[in-house]
Amino acid sequence: MVAGVHVKGNLTLAEDLADTGGLRLAWSALTRANGGPVDKKTSQLFFESFAQVTLSSVHGVSFYF
Description:
Blueprint: H1 9-34, H2 40-58
């Protein structure tokens, strides 16, 4: 449910999979650039940044941590 509107999952499946694939690719690049596992703070910033971009581009909403 998004802003009171039901979304048909079968219509958004391809986009959802692409978003997940992009996130996995970016995470892989980050860990390789870091030379291995990243610390908790870096991990948190990575996923917060992803959430910020997703919300601002999809819903026109912005928030700050």
